[in-house]
Design brief:
GO terms for molecular function: feruloyl esterase activity. By secondary structure, this protein is α+β, with helices and mostly antiparallel strands. The protein contains ten helices and 23 strands. It folds into two domains: about 130 residues, Lipocalin; about 270 residues, Rossmann fold (3-Layer(aba) Sandwich), CATH 3.40.50.1820. About 25% of the residues lie in helices and about 30% in strands.
C-alpha cells in the first residue's frame, strides 16, 4: 500500500475497528485506543512508488514507563533511513520478538536475525546481532533495508512503550524504529519462489527458517514420503537445495515432499547442533526443531509418517545420524554424505527400530577424515555400530563401482545384509574423493541424489 493514500477511508476505519476488537480479545491487559490505531495505520500508508516511502512523523501518544512487553510479536511500522522515516518495502515484513530471556530475534524482511538485549527503565542496549545467510529475492532495495534496520538496532538507546506499540530511539532522541503489535508474527510465514516455499517458523520463541518443496505431482489423495535435506557447516538452505544436492526433479518424478531446513547461527556461522568441536557450546534445539517441522508439515500435507527420511552433507550428514539416534521414532532411514557421528551422538545414540543407513564418503576427505579424529568417529566404526545394532551379518559384501570418470580409481560399495527387519547398512567408499557431494556431471562415479533416494525409499519405521 503506498504511503498517504486517502481514497478508501471507510474501508480503512472498518479494518481498524476489526483490528481493535481482535486486540481487545487476545490482549485484554494492553491498552488499545481506536484513535491511536487510526493514526498508526494512516502514517504507515503514505505515498511514493516502487518500495518504501517516507512518512510524516505521527504525533506520538504519551509514553508509558513500563518495560518492553516480552515474548510477543512486533512488526515494523516505519524506520529511519537517513533523515526520513520510511515504511518497509511492499511485500516484506520486518519483525521482532524481545524474549524474556534477553534474546531478540526476528526477520529483516530478508534474513532472520538474532541478538541479545538488556533494558533498564526506558534505556536499551542491543548487542551481538547476527544474520542468517539466506539468498533473498532481487527486489530493489531489500538488502539496503536490511542493513539500515540492523544499523538502527545497533544505535538504539531508548525503548518506549506507547499506546499503539513500541518505539526505539537513539541517544539524540530521534526515532529509529516504530513497532506495532503483530498478531501473526509467531505463526509460519512463507514466500513462494520458483524453487520452493521459503518459510519462517517460530520454534520456542526463536525464528527458524526452512524451504519446503511440494511437487506438482502431489494431489493430496495419497500419503507421500517426506525427505529432510540438511546443508553443511557455514552453508545455507537455498544454496544446498539449488546446488548439487538438488532433489527437486526426483521429488516430481517419485512424488515426495522435500524440506530443506536452515541452520541457526553459532558465533556467526550456520550450523547443526550435534556436539561437534566447533559447536560444542551451542544450545540450538535442532532435534526439537526437526520434530516440530515433521509434525507441522504432517498436519498440513498428507504425509506417510512411516516414510520420513533424512540426508545431508558434512554437518548435515552428522545431523542425519543425530536424528537416527535421538528422533528414531520419526525417522525411517538416513543417508550421510561426507558426514559421520560425533562422540556426543555416539554416546547418546538410542534408536528404537531397525534403521537403514547409507554413508557416502571419500578416502581423500581432509575435512571429515575417513579414519576419524578426536572429534569424529572413523567411518568404519560408524558402519560397525549400525550393522551390529541392526543384527546384520558381521562380514559385508564388497562390489566395485563402474569407473564413470575414467580416472583409474576403483570405488567400492560395502553392504551389510541379513539385518533385522530387512534393513541394510551400506557404504559407498569413494576412492580419491575429497569433501564433496558426488555427481556424475562433475566427474564422480555416482550421482548421490539418485543413489540416496533409491536407497532410502525402500524403508519404513515399521520394519522390525
Amino acid at each position: 500500500m503506498a504511503p498517504k493514500r486517502k481514497d478508501r477511508p471507510k474501508r480503512i476505519f472498518r479494518v481498524l475497528a476489526t483490528r481493535e476488537r481482535l486486540l481487545r480479545t487476545f490482549f485484554p491487559r494492553l491498552r488499545w485506543h481506536f484513535a491511536s490505531l487510526c493514526i498508526a495505520f494512516l502514517a504507515s500508508c503514505g505515498g511514493g512508488s516502487g518500495g518504501s516511502g517516507s512518512v510524516d512523523t505521527p504525533r506520538a501518544p504519551e509514553p508509558t514507563p513500563e518495560a518492553i512487553t516480552p515474548d510477543v510479536g512486533w512488526k515494523v511500522q516505519y524506520y529511519r533511513s537517513g533523515d526520513d522515516l520510511v515504511t518497509p518495502l511492499d511485500g516484506t515484513n520486518i519483525t521482532a520478538i524481545f524474549g524474556s530471556d534477553g534474546r531478540l530475534s526476528g526477520s529483516t524482511g530478508c534474513n532472520n536475525y538474532f541478538a541479545t538485549y538488556d533494558t533498564t527503565n526506558q534505556s536499551i542496549h542491543i548487542d551481538k546481532i547476527a544474520l542468517t545467510k539466506m539468498a533473498c529475492s532481487n527486489k530493489t532495495g531489500i538488502m539496503k533495508q536490511e542493513a539500515t534496520y540492523v544499523e538502527n538496532l545497533n544505535s538504539a538507546a531508548k525503548a518506549t512503550m506507547v499506546d499503539n506499540g513500541l518505539i526505539l530511539k537513539n541517544s539524540g532522541d530521534e526515532t529509529l524504529v516504530s513497532f506495532i503489535l503483530a498478531l501473526s508474527v509467531s505463526k509460519t510465514e512463507c514466500s513462494n519462489f520458483g524453487w520452493g516455499l521459503a518459510c519462517t517458523y517460530d520454534h520456542n520463541g526463536v525464528a527458524r527458517e526452512y524451504i519446503l518443496y511440494v511437487p506438482q505431482s502431489y494431489d493430496g489423495d495419497k500419503a507421500v514420503p517426506l525427505l529432510f535435506n540438511f546443508h553443511g557447516y557455514s552453508s545455507n538452505a537455498e544454496g544446498h537445495h539449488r546446488g548439487r544436492a538438488d532433489f527437486r526433479d526426483l521429488a516430481e518424478k517419485e512424488n515426495f515432499i522435500l524440506v530443506v531446513p536452515q541452520g541457526s547461527l553459532f558465533e556467526g556461522v550456520t550450523h547443526w547442533n550435534v556436539g561437534a568441536n566447533k559447536t560444542r557450546q551451542s544450545t540450538a534445539d535442532d532435534i526439537g526443531f526437526t520434530k516440530a517441522l515433521i509434525e507441522k508439515i504432517t498436519s498440513e500435507y498428507k504425509i506417510d509418517s512411516e516414510r520420513v527420511y533424512s540426508t545431508g552433507m558434512s554437518n548435515g550428514g552428522y545431523m542425519s545420524y543425530h536424528l537416527a539416534c535421538l528422533l528414531s521414532e520419526k525417522i525411517a532411514a538416513i543417508a550421510s554424505v561426507t558426514g559421520s557421528m560425533t562422540p556426543t551422538t555416539f554416546d547418546s545414540c538410542s534408536p528404537v527400530h531397525p534403521t537403514s543407513i547409507l554413508q557416502i564418503h571419500g578416502t581423500a576427505d581432509s575435512s571429515v577424515p575417513y579414519e576419524g579424529a578426536n572429534w569424529t568417529l572413523p567411518i568404519d566404526e560408524v558402519l560397525k555400530y549400525w550393522s551390529t545394532y541392526n543384527g546384520c551379518d558381521s562380514l559385508p559384501s564388497v562390489s566395485s563401482l563402474p569407473d564413470q570418470n575414467s580416472d583409474g580409481l576403483v570405488s567400492n560399495v560395502i553392504s551389510y545384509s541379513n539385518c533385522r527387519g530387512q534393513v541394510n547398512v551400506q557404504l559407498y567408499k569413494m576412492k580419491g574423493m575429497g569433501h564433496q557431494w558426488p555427481e556424475i556431471e562433475i566427474g564422480s562415479d555416482i550421482s548421490a541424489v539418485q543413489v540416496i533416494w533409491s536407497f532410502l525409499s525402500k524403508y519404513t519405521t515399521s520394519m522390525n
